[in-house]
């Protein structure tokens, strides 16, 4: 019997990420998990937060996927000339909400961030859990040594 795990990710992500997420979801299913997420084929007539809370209650673990949802570019100018330009990748605010609910539920939480995604749950040391940074738009990112190692540890913490 498959074990329910909550997946936190934006409802809509660019195709360069989506096709690799689909492969990851197949991997989860082949590993004995049933991914659950609001908007990913599961819906509610309640407020989204209440729907997430109800889904989370049925899950034995959670995976928080920090995809870049918003890109903020800022320039530093001195004397009218640009000195530096930076881009900040911001995840969906739902990652923070859903991650907090998962930690509050005291279920094992696996936090994964695309490079450049940071803040809150994606900052090292905030939750006391390891944050894996891996390119979520690379083919088979979920089959890389770094992921397999941390996934195995997370999986062993899930009570069935």
Q: How is the topology of this model organized?
A:
Blueprint: E1 3-8, H1 15-30, E2 33-36, H2 48-57, E3 61-66, E4 70-78, E5 81-90, H3 93-104, E6 109-113, E7 131-133, H4 145-156
Parallel strand pairs: 1-2, 1-3, 3-6, 6-7
Antiparallel strand pairs: 4-5
Kindly describe this structure.
The chain has 160 residues and is of the alpha/beta class. It has one domain: Rossmann fold (3-Layer(aba) Sandwich). Strand 1, helix 1 and strand 2 form a beta-alpha-beta unit. The model has no long low-confidence stretch (mean pLDDT 91).
Characteristics:
single chain, 160 residues, alpha/beta, Rossmann fold, 5-stranded parallel beta sheet, two-stranded antiparallel ribbon, 7 strands
Short description:
It is built from 4 helices and 7 strands.
Strand content: 25-35%
Q: How many discrete domains?
A: 1
What is the structural class?
A: alpha/beta
CATH architecture: 3-Layer(aba) Sandwich
Low-confidence stretches: none
N-end to C-end Cα span: 9 Å
CATH names the topology as Rossmann fold
Helix content: 25-40%
What radius of gyration results from the CA coordinates?
17 Å
Helix count, DSSP H or I runs of 4 or more residues:
4
The backbone outline, from C-alpha atoms, is globular
Average pLDDT confidence is 91
- As laid out across the biggest beta sheet, the strand order is 2-1-3-6-7
CATH class: Alpha Beta
Number of strands: 7
Described by strand count, sense and barrel closure, the largest sheet is: 5 strands, parallel
State the order of secondary-structure elements, H for helix, E for strand.
EHEHEEEHEEH
